[in-house]
Amino acid sequence: MTLRRPALLLSIDGRDLSGPEAAAASVSVDLGLAPAHDRAQVVLHALSPVVDLTVGAQLTIGLGVDGDSVETVFTGIVERIQAAAAGIQVTAYAPSLALSRTRVAQAYLGQTAADVISDLLSQAGVSPGSISADLSLAAYHVDERRSAWSHVCAIARLAGAAVRSAADGSVEVAPLSAGTEERELRYGAELLAWYAERRADGEPAPAIVPTGAGSEAGAERWQLLLKEPDGGPPSATTLVPGAVRDRDAAATVADGFAARAGLRQQGGWALVTGLAGMRAGERVGLIGLPLGGDVGARALTVTHRLDRGGYTTRMTLGAAG
Questions:
Q1: How much is the pLDDT for 312?
Q2: 314, 191 Cβ separation under 8 angstroms
Q3: Which pairing describes strands 171-175 and 283-287: parallel, antiparallel, or unpaired?
Q4: Which residues have CB under 8 Å from 244's CB, separation 6+?
Q5: Residue 63 near residue 7 (C-beta atoms within 8 A)
Q6: Residue 11 buriedness (CB in 10 A; 0-12 / 13-18 / 19+)
Q7: Mean pLDDT estimate for the chain
Q8: Residue 165 has what pLDDT?
Q9: How many CB atoms are closer than 10 A to CB 262?
Q10: How far is it, in rounded angstroms, from Cα 86 to Cα 49?
Q11: Is the model's pTM score more than 0.85?
C-alpha cells in the first residue's frame, strides 16, 4: 500500500512556502456560490517566517496529496490578522469582496447580462473569468443604494446563473443547469461520511411576464403600466421584471427561477478525502450507498480543511438539477 501525504503550498505576496516551511498549523478554505465570498483561514506558528505579514497581502493556497500534485484552491487578499502567544490566524477573502465595497450609478440599455456583469467587475477592479449569461436586458439601472456585488447577484439570478470565484480569484458566471459531468464519490473509498435527504416540493417558482412595450393607451404612453401584463388575472405569484421586454427573455428568467427552486428539493452533506479540484457548483454522485442507492447532487458549498487530522473536503448538497 502506498502512503499518500497531504501537501500544502502557501504563496504570500509571491513568496512560495510549503506547509512545514511556513509553520502552518491548519488551513481552512470555504468556497461557495454568491452572495457569499470565498474565504480562507490559515493558522501560523509564532516562529513562522511569514508571521509578520500584513493586511492587504495577496494569499494563494495550494492543496493536494504528495508534493507533485498540489492544485491552487484559493487566491485572495488578507483582510484580518489575529495574534496570540502561539501564533497568528490569518483571514483572507476572494477579490470578489471588492464588489461589496463598490457602489456605481450607471444605466445599461440593450445589453446582455454578461455585458453588464463584466462592466461592473471592471469598475471594481475584479478580473472576469468565464461569464456565461446571455439574457438580453432592455434596460437595467444600477444605483448606489446597493453594492455592485448585489447587482451582479441580482442580474445573474435573472439570467438563471450562479456566481462563484475561480481558484485564481476571478469571478465566474454560469447557468445553474451547466455541467453534465458528475464527480463520483464512492462509499467505502473517498466518501468518508454522508447524509442525504429529499424534501417535499415547496413554494413553486413565480411566473415571469415581460414588461409590455407600451400600455393600453399606446406606445406614446410608455410610462403607464399594463393593467394585466400576463393577459389576465394571475393564478400564482407573478413577477414582471422591468429589464425583460420579450417572451423569450421571460422564459429564460422563468427557467432560472425554476432551477433555483429545484435545488431546495434535496439536501445533505458529504465528507470525503481531500479533493483539491472540488469547487462549489459541481455535480457529484454518491455511489454505492448502503441505503437508498446512488444519489446525484450538486455541491452548494465546499470546505477544504488541512490540519493534524489530515486533509478532508466537506460539501453541502442540493439537487443536481
A1: 95
A2: no
A3: unpaired
A4: 135, 137, 138, 158, 208, 210, 211, 250, 253
A5: yes
A6: middle
A7: 87
A8: 97
A9: 18
A10: 14
A11: yes
Answer whether 224's CB lies under 8 Å from 231's CB: no
- 174: Cβ contacts below 8 Å, ≥ 6 apart: 130, 132, 161, 162, 281
Domains of the chain: 6-94 (2.30.300.10), 98-175 (3.55.50.10), 182-202+263-319 (2.40.30.150), 207-257 (no CATH)
Model pLDDT for residues 247-294, shown as the tens digit of each residue = 777 778 878 877 777 777 788 999 999 999 999 999 999 998 887 678
**Secondary structure letter of residue 169 according to DSSP:** S
**Cell numbers standing for residue 317:** 448538497
- The residue with cell 450607471 is 106
- 308: how many CB neighbours lie within 10 A of its CB? 6
Q: Write the pLDDT tens digit of every residue in 136-184.
A: 888 899 999 999 999 999 999 999 899 999 999 999 999 877 666 788 9
